[in-house]
Each structure stands twice: as C-alpha cells, then as structure tokens.
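Entry type: protein chain
Record version: 2
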Amino acid sequence: MSLLQFNTSSWKMFSSTILQSVLLVAILFVASTSPATVPGTTKAGKPVDRTGKQYNRYYLHQCHKEDPQVNECLIESANTLLKNFQRGIPELGVTNVEPIVIDEIHLALGSGPNGYRATFKEVTAYGVSNMTVIGARSDLSSNQFQFTFHVPKISIRAHYRSSGVLIMVPATGGGEYWGEYDDCKAKVYLKASEYSRSDGRRYLRTEDLKMDFTVKNLKMGIEKVHNGNQILEAALNLFINSNSQELLKEMKPDIKKKLLVQMKTFLDDHLFAQIPYDEWVV
C-alpha cells in the first residue's frame, strides 16, 4: 500500500530527493557580509572564492536565455547536477544521497469504525539517485520551469501498523512492507523569484512548487506479520497486488505533500541560497 512511498522516497533526495531530487533550475552560492571577502566572479565571469582565488563549479552547466534550444540546455544542466549528486557535492553540503528516508505515510480506505487504516514508518527508498531529467519547459522571463524526471527502479522498505477490516478480514496488526516500483515518472513545476544580496549578486527563492508522479509497474507485499498471522498476511498481499494502482492513488496526496516540503527545503537551502542565478542562467 505504500506504493506512494515511491515518491516519498524519491523526492527526499528530490529529498531528494528526490526525489526528490531534483528541481535543478537555478542555483546560487552563499555570500559573506564582507564585500572584501565574499565569493564573486572575475571579469571573465569565472567564480572566485572568499580569497579571490578562481575555482570551478564542476557540477554546473550554464545556459543562456537567448539560446533557442534553452530547454535542451536546461535538461543537460539538470542531468549534470544529478550525476554529481550521485557522487556527492560537499561544497553544497550534499554527501550521502541514498537511501532516502521518509518518516511516515498514511493510508485510509473506507470510513466508519471498520474502515481500514495503515501507517508506514521509516519508509526507506533505494534507487532514486539513478533519476534523469527527460523533459523541460521554461519561461525564463518569469522564472517558471517544468521538469520531467524518470527513475528506472525504486525499492522500498518500511514498518507498518494497520487497523480495521479489509476484504472482510480483521486487519489490525503490523509487520514489514516491501515494494518494487518500476518505470517511475514525475513532473515538477517551479516558479521562483529573484532578489539581490549585499554582494551585488542576484539569487532565486521558491515561490510556488507543484508535482505529480506515476509508477508504471508495481510489485509489493507484507511480511513478518506480528503474531505470525498467516491468514492476515495472505489476505493483505492478495489485496495489495490486485489493487496497487488504486492504493497508489489513495496515498498520493500525503506523499506529494511531504515530498514538496522536502523539495522546497532542498532547493532553497542547498541550491538557491548557495549559487547565484547568473552562474546557472545568463
């Protein structure tokens, strides 16, 4: 049932991840308050550190607003950043990107005292760092971006607790959840605004962030059910695998909400606050 866990995990990267992971549209470097020591650029436009020494942002691929193929350039830029995220970018405070962990996800089916309720905790996802950007649309005059991401495979593990009745079987209990999510796609929309700092550089901050995702192929189940209830385990596994897409639909609102919070924090704290916009798009 933790189908939606896919996104939860993926975007904590976006969170990740992800997950998210992953709205890599504008970027900036943190400036100091002392004009004599802040990072900046040389006359040639090369970034320099606090001592004035030139350095190379190896994880960036710069794009130009006037480029007729700017969306293709943004795809290359995002994938360059994602590829370096896999190895870690200590300069941005990004080290381990896997696994991606979400604290909690909820599922509710039916209403009333017999409605089925499940809580998944410590949702742990592997494979999100293999995401790539396969599409981009932009309006650079208003700093609006839409990226399409693809992740070949995400493996999920979580602890679960449930209560209520499911397919006429009392389903109160707990155990371990596992899921294999193949061919995952996500679309992320970002609107950002520009602002100036004391270093004279312009930076971005997130104004609006939306996302949706799909999983083409799902396999999942539960195991190690508390008290060794084999009847409950068999009933739940049958129900889960027969209704995987429906369960994913029910879980989406909770998953998207948590992913968006994580994504906004990642963008604003690790990217936008640390790299001036003109080092990404000029």
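Comment: The two ends are 45 Å apart (CA to CA).
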